[in-house]
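ok so dumb question maybe but i'm new to this and my supervisor (M.) told me to 'just get the structure for Isochorismatase-like domain-containing protein' and walked off. so i did the thing. is this what she meant?? sequence i used:
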Amino acid sequence: MTTVEARPAPFTFEPASTALLVIDMQRDFLLPGGFGETLGNDVSHLRRTIAPLAALLAEWRAAGLTVIHTREGHLPDLSDCPPAKLARGAPSMRIGDEGPLGRILVRGEYGHDIVDELAPAPGEPVIDKPGKGAFYATELGALLDERKVTSLVVTGVTTEVCVHTTVREANDRGYECLVLADCVGSYFPEFQRVGLDMIAAQGGIFGWVADSTDVLRALQEES
Ligand code: C5J
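this is what came out, is it supposed to look like this??
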């Protein structure tokens, strides 16, 4: 067992039954000039997660542990995109429109894929998800069962949307979730702070919160 300093209390996990989940680190959300920025967001709030996540990925892979990536997006004919999601808000561009990095959030487009710095290694599963949560309409639950995963170290974007939706459902499904504050990002600093506080509140109502350096230290002590 490995123990990480975390809030609201230390987080203990068995590395062999723990997956590092990397949520939606896609160009559409992170690249300057991409979809996220066209909506008026400051992508630097998300881009600060890339370096610590790349360092953690390197160590996690070196230890031979499970990594799973997700991508939010839709089929080219948008048949898996609920009309309500397509119509939501009043953005300058919508899902499926031709954006600066290809059709926005459409599978197979340049912008839909993961940023170069965090490209999946050969053999690492990439879960394509039409929703905000990583379990809805995906094979993630079956994959975790198959690999006997019981704990998740959760990273990615955005903290209050896809990370939160996934952690809440993972918690309901019985997974113990450690969310890494420096490896999750929100376009809104206030949502980042409150989103993390919500996870750890009430004795860890959805999970635990730590920094990637806490996990790296625990992995190094282990080896
Ligand atoms: C959003 C996500 N924010 N990956 N997607 O629309 O959090």
